[in-house]
Structure formats: structure tokens, C-alpha cells
Amino acid sequence: MPSILHVNASPRDAQSRSLALAETFLRALAEHAPAVEVTTLNLFERGALPEFGTAAAHAKMATFTGSEQTEEQRAAWADARAVFEQFANADGYVFNIPMWNAGVPYVLKQWIDIVTQPGWSFGFDPEIGYSGLLAGKKAVAIHTSGVFAPGVPAAFGSDFSVPFFEDWLRFVGVTDADHVRFAPTVLNQDPEETRRAAERRLHALVPDFGAHLAPLNA
Ligand SMILES: Cc1cc2nc3c(=O)[nH]c(=O)nc-3n(C[C@H](O)[C@H](O)[C@H](O)COP(=O)(O)O)c2cc1C
């Protein structure tokens, strides 16, 4: 059965605008392609992610230098691998990402730092550079912000969130990705219409997303 990993990067549960839009998309997709399994990873849930600190960073560098990992480093590496496998085993991804201080929420960065490992999600060749290893996946990312919106004056903030996340998806090889923004900001004259526009855009993405998963069902 084709599977989707839904990564929820908002802690605001029922109040979350990005989560509401992700759920709208997933509901529409379930109607279109009922035989799809969805797993939600709530990044802010306590214990959702292992830490990626001293032992894990040494373990990572040991893979580059070819040196032996200590027992503690092997354990940290195995914890990271389990998170990576949940990511790699899915056929498609839905991300909902609030803008936090012009970037992504720290738990999303933590998840990215865990799953982005050499030989797992990317390769490196000194002559040609990096290559993403997660080919054949499809992603939809929903981005919300409360003040920033494309085209606002510089005093209303910057966006390092969407460019960073777009770049990271490409980096790991997820090149088939759509990004939908919802920015009902202070300068927005009609936030409700902006939300409906985001919903329309998400509904329009459903057939293509379903078609990507359909052959996996055969
Ligand atoms: C910690 C924090 C930092 C935020 N930083 C920004 C920001 O830099 N720019 C912005 O436009 N909105 C910012 N916001 C507003 C959120 O992006 C906005 O409320 C968004 O809708 C939240 O998504 P959610 O409803 O899915 O949680 C911030 C909100 C929080 C809680």
C-alpha cells in the first residue's frame, strides 16, 4: 500500500493554520485515493525525536573519516537511522511548516539534521558534488506566516523558511515538490479569501499526487 509521511511542524494543534490545511489536503487525497496509508509525525510531541548532539555528530564525522564508532556513537547513529527509515520508507510527504523567526521551527531543523546523512539521503563526489538519494518521491509543503508575505516591505520581515526548505528537499533528491503558502498577515485585505485560495490550490494538487501513488498500489 502506498504510504505518506505527514510531518507536522506546528505545536498549535487545533489552532494551527498549517495543520488545518494539511488535514484538508489529506482528507481530499483520502477521497481520491482511499488505499493510501498516512502516518503523522508530530515533531513537537515529547520524545518524537532523539537528540542529535555530541555522540551523533562524532558518529556522522566517523562515517566521513572511516574511523570506528564508539558504542555510544553507534547507539546515537542507530537512533538517527530509525528516524531516517520512517522518512525513506514513505512514498510521499506532506509537510506543514509555520514560519518561526523567519526560518523553520527548531524541531523541523532537528529532524532535518537527523535524516540528512551521507549514504542515506545524499551522496557526495569530490568532482561532481552532492547528489540526493531519495528519488521518485513526491512532496507537498504548506507554509504559514503571520506577518511576512511575498511582496511586503522589508520592515515586515524576511523569509528564510521557504527557500531553505525548498533547497533541502532538492538536496535529498525530492525534486517533485509543491509549496503552498498561507499568509493571512496584517497587510492582507482579505485573509479568508487567502485561505480559500490556499485550499483551492491544495485541492488542485490532489489528482497529481494521487496519480503518483496509484502505480504503487498495482
Ligand atoms: C515562535 C514563533 C515565531 C514566529 N515568527 C514569525 C516570523 O518570523 N514571521 C512571521 O511572519 N510570522 C511568525 N510567526 C507567526 C506564525 O508563522 C503564524 O502564526 C503561523 O500561522 C503559525 O502557523 P500554525 O498556525 O500552523 O502554527 C511566529 C510564530 C511563533 C509562535
Tell me the major beta sheet: 5 strands, parallel
Basic shape: globular
Counting structural domains, the number is: 1
**What separation lies between the terminal Cα atoms?**
9 Å
CATH topology: Rossmann fold
| Poorly predicted tracts of residues | none
| Strand/helix succession | EHEHHEHEEEHEH
CATH class: Alpha Beta
Helical/strand content category: alpha/beta
Helical amount: 40-55%
Would you count the extended β strands for me? 7
Number of helices: 6
Q: Name the CATH homologous superfamily.
A: Flavodoxin domain
List the helices and strands and how they pair.
Blueprint lengths: L2 E6 L8 H16 L4 E6 L11 H12 L5 H19 L2 E7 L7 H10 L6 E4 L3 E4 L5 E7 L16 H11 L4 E7 L8 H27 L1
Parallel strand pairs: 1-2, 1-3, 3-6, 6-7
Antiparallel strand pairs: 4-5
Helix pairs in contact: 1-6, 2-3
This protein binds flavin mononucleotide (FMN).
